[in-house]
Input
Amino acid sequence: VAVPPSLIAESISRISIIFFAGLIAWLSRLVYSRVFAVSLLRASIKLSVSSLSALCEQMFAFFLQPVYRENIYLFERRFHNKKICFMQALKRVRMRMEVTPKGKYRAMLLLSHLERLHDAILDCSQLRMRVSDHATLELCANELFVISQAINGELTAMIKTIFRKKKSCNNGKITIAINRLEENYYHVLQITAPDPLAFVLFINSLKMLSHEITACQLKDNG
Amino acid sequence: VKITIVRKRILIISRWLNRCPFALQQTLRVVAAVSLAAIVSFYFFNNFNFWLILTAFMLAQVNQYMFFRKGLELACGIVLGVVLAGLLTINVHQALIIYVVVMVFIVSGYLFDNWFLETNKLFLHILFFSITFSFAVSFPVQTIALIRDRLGAVVLGAVVGTICGQLIFPFNVIDEFQKKLLPVLQALSGYMQTIIEKFLHKGITDTKVTEIRLRLEQTLRTRPGTYPEWVYEVGFNPGLRSGFRFFLINVERLIEIIFSMNYLVAGEIDDKRLQEIADYISVATERNVELITLLISFFQKKEIYAMTNDFTNDILDLDSALNRVVPGGLALLDTVPDYMLLIALVRCIKDMRCLLLQLVTALPTSDCYKH
Output
């Protein structure tokens, strides 16, 4: 059956309209490519920080949840998932950094700090392997909870202010919370814990983590 | 001759399909399940039976990584949804009451999942039940006979979905686990060596460390199905479950220790103090690498080679060297940051040794493996 010429003409006109619409979209993307790239990079950095916050929260769940010992596989799997989320977010940052000349240097600095933050969190998480008894952790549960809240608060504040000129650089809460844990260590844990060295190392790791958060904020400010 | 050629071609295609990404394999499973369900539906019901196809679609999501028991549980959830919705629509005729009951079911399911279970193990069950229940209420039945027909279709759909989910792209659990874990262990070994060499100033650049770190991250940052996460699934082979999970968790912990070590070695340390302990750290790391190599060799060749080295004295020597360098009392550790760094690093090496020895001890002997 022969197709009427009018129908062919209509089809061609429709295809050309769609083609031109696509061309306009592509051109606008090309013109504003830098803006798109920068905003995508910013979004992926925010996502990385938010994954770090989730990772940190999950790490404190090991210490604060009494059911951890009965559900080791479940908690470990959740922790693994959070780590993978962070790694995937970091991969996106690296990919977007390659195509974003503007702010690349700043993003690279942030990237290395995020990696260090991740490593510092994993360093803190070693406590769960070194202290097998939840009763020992219960002795400092309040302090751990406050530290967890302070770190998450600081990371959430960092997500909100990343790449902005107005900053809030104050991790005083974390320092106060760590000091409280240290006091607890000197008064209680040092005597009662089967392996006090594990807590010494944990407190030191927390201090380094706090230092990393400050450094990350300062670099972002700079 | 023709049969041989066809066989060869089928073999090539099946090998190619087995190498396909997980997403493609899963899509093909679901497509096969839905198509087979449509054929079965025409054969038994002379029409497209919605319930049969829906159940086959849902159950095809239960692939080999999720295992048969989970499929059975989900099928029970669907059957329960159909029966409850059927009884409700037959006995209650006020639409408002039905809506309230549906809301109560969904909200209570949500609350149950969130409050009473600190695990999300039942999430999929509640989701499937809710979907089935909502559909069954939306298309009400008038008689028990119709519920029976619907149940028949659900059971047939469950069979079709499970068969397609389990039999398309089958795999050997043990081989698959070893295959997936091998690149992780290889990357782990390389990263650990590089970190320690950098710490001991053996000419390793930051670029090299970053490159090797990226390699490890790449092996971990995997697509679904390329990292053996499925050993955590409910219903995974009870005979293998505890062993595989134990192995995977310990490997994860090893990775964490290595990232932690990477963080520690970035700190500044006095050269004089480092020199006093450098040799001992080097020897202990070599032993750890040797243990990882043993694991790699086992996964590659499926046999354990005899080890001649001693794995206790080097750690004792390391401890003695550390005691010579750092002060005895814990209270004095804060005075010099180097002390804390060295103690943390040595502790990481010791923790790693402990985990590695546990893993090596847990390896099956060649006789066990054959069985």
Observations:
- Residues 33-64 of chain A form the longest helix (32 residues).
- Chain A has a mean pLDDT of 83.
- The radius of gyration of chain A is 25 Å.
- Chain A touches chain B through 35 residues (CB under 8 Å).
